[in-house]
Amino acid sequence: MKKAVAILFSGLCILSVTACKHSAKDPDLNAANTPTSTTNNDEIVKETITDRHGDQMEIITNKTKNSVVVRLNGQSYELHKNFENPGFSTVDNKYQYTETKSEVTFLKKDVDMVLFHGKRDQANTKLASQ
Predict the structure, then answer these.
(1) Do residues 84 and 67 lie in contact, with contact meaning Cβ atoms separated by under 8 Å?
(2) Alpha carbon distances (Å) from 68 to 9, 73, 97
(3) In what order do the strands lie in the sheet with 67-72?
(4) What's the pLDDT tens digit per position in 76-111?
(5) Scanning 7, 58, 68, 98, which has its CA 20 to 30 A from the CA of 84?
(6) What's the rounded Cα separation, in Å, for the pair 30 and 76?
(7) d(CA 117, CA 41)
C-alpha cells in the first residue's frame, strides 16, 4: 500500500512539474500585463440612495458621455440621455431613470412599474449648495 501511494505521489509531482514549464517571457503574457495609458477625463459621480423600505440603488453618472449606470438588486442597467423626454433610458427603451434635486425614480416602462423611488439626503444637499 505504501508503495502505491509513493508511486502515485511521485507521478503527481512529475506531472505538475512538467505542466508548469510555461515560459515567463511569453509575448502574450507581456501584452496582457502592460498597462494602457489612456487619459480618461470623464466627469463621473457615484451616489447611493436608500428608499423608505431600506433598499439601496447605486447610481454612477458620467456627465461627459451623458450616461448613467444604475445598480439595483444585483443587476446593472446602462442608460443614456434621452433628449426627447426628461431623464435617461436604455437602448431598447424598456427602463427609464429620472431625477430631480431631491428625488430619484427608476421604472420599467413596458408595464408602468416603479422599480425604485427614493429621496436624496437633504442634509448633504443643503451643505453642498451653501
Answers:
(1) no
(2) 55, 16, 9
(3) 44-50, 56-62, 67-72, 75-81, 88-89, 95-99, 103-108, 113-119
(4) 999 998 887 778 888 888 998 988 888 889 999 888
(5) 58
(6) 32
(7) 31
Amino acid at 89: S
SS (H, E, C) 105-124: EEEECCCCEEEEEEECCHHH
pLDDT value at residue 42:
82
CA distances from 84 to 78, 88, 89, 105 (A): 18, 10, 11, 18
Under 8 Å CB-to-CB from 82, ≥6 apart: which residues? 88, 89, 96
Residue 17 one-letter amino acid: V
> How far, in Å, are 5, 96, 111 from residue 85 at the CA level?
72, 10, 18
Pairwise CA distance, residues 60 & 63, whole Å: 10
pLDDT in tens, 9-62: 676 656 565 555 554 444 444 444 545 545 568 889 999 999 888 899 999 999
Q: Which long-range contacts (CB under 8 A, 24 or more apart) does 123-128 make?
A: 125/101
